[in-house]
Design a protein that fits this description.
By secondary structure, the chain is an alpha/beta fold. It contains 15 helices and 14 strands. It folds into three domains: about 1-30, no CATH class; about 70-315, Type I PLP-dependent aspartate aminotransferase-like (Major domain) (Aspartate Aminotransferase, domain 2), CATH 3.40.640.10; about 315-375 and about 405-429, Aspartate Aminotransferase, domain 1, CATH 3.90.1150.10. The chain has helices at about 5-15, 70-80, 90-105, 115-130, 155-160, 170-175, 185-190, 215-230, 250, 280, 300-315, 320-340, 365-370, 375-385, 405-429; strands at about 35-40, 45, 50-55, 110-115, 135-140, 175-180, 195-200, 230-235, 260, 270-275, 345-350, 350-355, 390, 400. The radius of gyration is 21 Å and the shape is globular. The chain binds ligand KE4.
C-alpha cells in the first residue's frame, strides 16, 4: 500500500467516520488501507502515490463510458460557465427526462432527485400513496440505498459487514418490510397479502454480488403484483443504461409500475430518478398529495453530464462491445480457475459481474454468502498488487466500461491467471 494513501487515511479517520464518506469504500470487506484516488482517465485510476490500476469499480457503476470522456467533460465545462444551480426549472431537465422516457417506455413521467436512495425512498412513498397500503416486500441481499424501510437484510455494505439491519431504524418501520430470498417466487406468494403496497427488486442483483434473475422470476413478480394489486418497483439504479440502453426491463421484457434510476444517468455526478405511468405520477407534488422535493434536484451540471453520457450510449455499439469483452473475461477467468483448481463462479450480465469464491451456482444471498471471503480478500489484494482495482467486497458487482479495450481484458485475464495460480498454491498447501 502506498505511503500517501496510508497518511491520508489516518488523517481522514480523524474527521470523517471510518475515513470515508460511504462505508464500502473503507476496505473493511477485504482488510487493509483504502486507496486514495488522485485522478482517473479511461479505464485507469491513479492513486495518491501515483500508482496506476485498471479500474473495475467505475465509481460503483456510473462510469460506463470510462473516466473523463471528452463529450461529458466538455458538457460539464459548458454547463459550469452558465451557472451551477438555480433552484428553478431548466431546459436541460426536460431534455434528460425526455431521453429517459424515450429509452424506457414504462416511464411516461419522471422526477429527478440527487441519489439512488432518494429515488427508492420516493418510489416507496409513491407506492404507498397510490395503494393506501403500508407493507413492502424486498429480497435478502437486495440493497436499495440507505432508506430506513429498506435496511432490512440489506446487501452491499450491510451484507459485507454482516450487519444487514441498521441501528437507529425503529422496529415500527421495519415491521412493515418483509424480506424473502431472491429468485424465490413461492416465498413472494406466501408473503403477499392485501396489505402489500409494493415489491421492490433489483432486476439483476448487484448488491449481493452479481446475481441474474432466474428464468421467469421477473415476469412472475409482475403477475403476482398485478393479481394482488401491489406495485412492482424495479430498482434500476445499477442496471439502468448498464445492462442495456433500456435497462434490465428491456432485456427481460418486464413492465414495472415504477422504475428507479441513478448512477449512469448522471455520468458520475450526483443524481437519481423515479418514474412511471402518467396516471401514477399525477400523485407527485405539486400535482398530487405525495410530497417529495430537493434543493439540487435536476442540477444543471449533473443533468449536462447525464445527457452527454446517454447521448454517447444511444444507438452506439457500446453494449455489444461490452458484452463481447465482458464475456471474454468471464471465460478467461473461469478457464484459469479450472486450470489452477481454484473453486469459483463468475456471474455476469453484460458488463456487470462478480467472481464468487465458491463452487456455485450463486442464485441468491444464501449461496452468495457461501463464498470464501478469505480467498476473495487474498485475490483482491494480489490483484491490487498486479495493478487491478476490484470492488473491495465479495458481495459487490464489478463493472467494465467502453474504455476497457481488448488489450485491457487480455491483461486482466493474464493477471488473474497469475494470481489464481498463487492462490491455489497458498490455500492448497
Ligand atoms: P445511492 O444512494 O448510493 O446513489 O444509490 C443507492 C442504490 C440504490 N439501488 C441500487 C440497486 C444500488 O446499487 C444503490 C447503490 N449501490 C452501491 C453499490 N453497491 C453504492 C456504493 C456505496 O454505497 O458507496
Amino acid at each position: 500500500m502506498g505511503k500517501n494513501s496510508e497518511t491520508l487515511f489516518s488523517r481522514a479517520q480523524e474527521i470523517i467516520p471510518g475515513g470515508v464518506n460511504s462505508p464500502v469504500r473503507a476496505f473493511k470487506g477485504v482488510g487493509g488501507t483504502p486507496l486514495f484516488i488522485d485522478q482517473a482517465l479511461g479505464s485507469r485510476i491513479f492513486d495518491a502515490d501515483g500508482l496506476q490500476y485498471i479500474d473495475c469499480v467505475g465509481s460503483w457503476g456510473p462510469m460506463i463510458l470510462g473516466h473523463g470522456h471528452r463529450y461529458v467533460v466538455e458538457a460539464v465545462k459548458k454547463a459550469a460557465t452558465r451557472g451551477f444551480s438555480f433552484g428553478a426549472p431548466t431546459v436541460g431537465e426536460i431534455e434528460l427526462a425526455e431521453m429517459i422516457a424515450q429509452a424506457i417506455p414504462s416511464i411516461e413521467m419522471v422526477r429527478l432527485v440527487n441519489s439512488g436512495t432518494e429515488a427508492t425512498m420516493s418510489a416507496l412513498r409513491l407506492a404507498r400513496a397510490a395503494t393506501g397500503r403500508k407493507k413492502i416486500i424486498k429480497f435478502d441481499g437486495g440493497y436499495h440505498g440507505h432508506v430506513d424501510a429498506l435496511l432490512v437484510k440489506a446487501g452491499s455494505g450491510g451484507a459485507t459487514f454482516n450487519v444487514p439491519d441498521s441501528a437507529g431504524v425503529p422496529k415500527e418501520v421495519t415491521e412493515l418490510t418483509i424480506s424473502v430470498p431472491y429468485n424465490n417466487l413461492k416465498a413472494v406468494r406466501e408473503a403477499m397479502d392485501g396489505e402489500v403496497a409494493a415489491v421492490i427488486v433489483e432486476p439483476v442483483a448487484g448488491n449481493m454480488g452479481c446475481v441474474p434473475p432466474a428464468e421467469g422470476f421477473l415476469q412472475g413478480l409482475r403477475d403476482i403484483c398485478t393479481e394482488a394489486g401491489a406495485l412492482l418497483i424495479l430498482d434500476e439504479v445499477m442496471t439502468g443504461f448498464r445492462v442495456a440502453y433500456g435497462g434490465a426491463q428491456s432485456l427481460y421484457n418486464v413492465k414495472p409500475d415504477i422504475t428507479t434510476l441513478g448512477k449512469i444517468i448522471g455520468g458520475g455526478m450526483p443524481i437519481g430518478a423515479y418514474g412511471g405511468s402518467r396516471e401514477l405520477m399525477q400523485l407527485v407534488s405539486p400535482l398530487g398529495p405525495m410530497y417529495q422535493a430537493g434543493t439540487l434536484s435536476g442540477n444543471p451540471i449533473a443533468v449536462a453530464a447525464g445527457k452527454a453520457t446517454l447521448g454517447v450510449l444511444k444507438n452506439s455499439s457500446i453494449y455489444a462491445d461490452l458484452e463481447e469483452r465482458s464475456g471474454e473475461f468471464q471465460t478467461g477467468v473461469t478457464k484459469s480457475a479450472e486450470k489452477h483448481g481454484v473453486p469459483l463462479t463468475v456471474n455476469r450480465v453484460g458488463s456487470m459481474w462478480t467472481i464468487f469464491f465458491t463452487e456455485g451456482p450463486v442464485t441468491d444471498y444464501e449461496s452468495a454468502n457461501k463464498s470464501n471471503r478469505e480467498r476473495f480478500s487474498r485475490f483482491f489484494h494480489l490483484m491490487l498488487g498486479e495493478g487491478v482495482y476490484l470492488p473491495p467486497s465479495q458481495l459487490e458487482a464489478a463493472f467494465f466500461s467502453a474504455a476497457h479495450a481488448k488489450k485491457d481484458i487480455l491483461q486482466l485475464i493474464e493477471r488473474a491467471d497469475r494470481v489464481l495460480k498463487k492462490i491455489n498454491w497458498e490455500f492448497e498447501k
